[in-house]
Design a protein that fits this description.
With 256 residues, this protein is α/β, with parallel strands linked by helices. The protein is built from ten helices and ten strands. The structure holds octanoyl-coenzyme A.
């Protein structure tokens, strides 16, 4: 169905999108970005409960495809930047948990895509970075905004100004990834996490995601008011009935 992506869905509603352009370390060319847009539409239609991104071969994604940069005018490249930003915003706005399973190079636009996910699990050999400065450019798919929000301005400026990659150990230390596992354990670690989220209370998860993502961009009193609104909405959902009943009946909750 896609040339550069593999789209898979399990019965539990876990959708995995694997970048398969191995010969270019899964660099995001125009075609891949278009396919990603289509795949995200499918995720919405497919009743997915969790979305996982993976890269095949040696990389998660080694950035935007540099071979498509030469000869582009500023307005053409701005359009590409806006398209990629829109796609990453769509990932961030999905009302389901998203996980980046980072197996290798996670650079430039690849790091930007991983940062648009809710959670990041890295293999011990993964490398993260925003190397754009070494090309004489800056990150253009949200990196200058998401990186400082995730790791703080000090580290973000160091990474973006120097363009050096960091290993997964440092990525964990600065809060860029949630967990680091041995390469051979990456699939099972991601699968365990995805399964746990897929069997969780999907409405409460979506409200928690919205409260965190929207709230951290709002003024405090507005944010805390929004939290109260979303908190009260969870009381209108059957998952709350089940979760609270299960606690009182001393059994494990079975969310639908
Ligand atoms: N674009 C195109 N091709 C790539 C890319 C890339 N980003 N990364 C790797 N490749 C290709 C290589 O050219 C090579 O192809 P070939 O075999 O035909 O020569 C193949 O993948 C394998 O790569 P290497 O031989 O270089 O493998 P190494 O193990 O020696 O090195 C590296 C791996 C360190 C990852 C190296 O390939 C590298 O530095 N790649 C570029 C990383 C980079 O600079 N990424 C940032 C790109 S800019 C960006 O992402 C901006 C995002 C915002 C965009 C918004 C719209 C414009």
């Amino acid at each position: 169905m896609f040339n550069n992506l593999l789209y898979e869905r399990t019965d539990e509603g876990i959708v995995t999108i694997t970048f398969t352009r191995e010969k270019a370390l899964n660099a995001l060319n125009n075609e891949t970005v278009r396919e990603l847009e289509q795949a995200l539409e499918k995720v919405k239609d497919d009743n997915a409960r969790v979305l996982v991104f993976k890269g095949s071969g040696r990389a998660f994604i080694a950035g935007a495809d540099i071979t498509e940069f030469k000869g582009k005018t500023a307005s053409e490249i701005k359009l590409f930047s806006l398209v990629l930003q829109k796609v990453l915003n769509e990932i961030e706005l999905l009302p389901i948990p998203t996980i980046a399973a980072v197996n290798g190079f996670c650079l430039g636009g690849g790091c930007e895509l991983a940062m648009a996910c809710d959670l990041r699990i890295a293999s011990n050999i993964a490398l993260f970075g925003q190397p754009e400065i070494t090309l004489g450019i800056i990150p253009g798919a949200g990196g200058t905004q998401r990186l400082p929000r995730l790791v703080g301005k000090t580290i973000a400026k160091e990474m973006i100004f120097l363009g050096d990659s960091i290993d997964s150990k440092r990525a964990f230390k600065i809060g860029l990834v949630n967990k680091v596992v041995e390469t051979e354990d990456l699939d099972s670690a991601v699968n365990d996490l995805a399964k746990r989220l897929a069997t969780g209370p999907s409405f409460a998860l979506s409200q928690a995601k919205e409260a965190i993502d929207r709230g951290t961009e709002m003024a405090w009193l507005d944010a805390i008011q929004m939290e109260a609104n979303l908190f009260s909405l969870t009381f209108t959902h059957e998952d709350m009935e089940e979760g609270v009943s299960a606690f009182l009946e001393k059994r494990k909750a079975q969310f639908k």
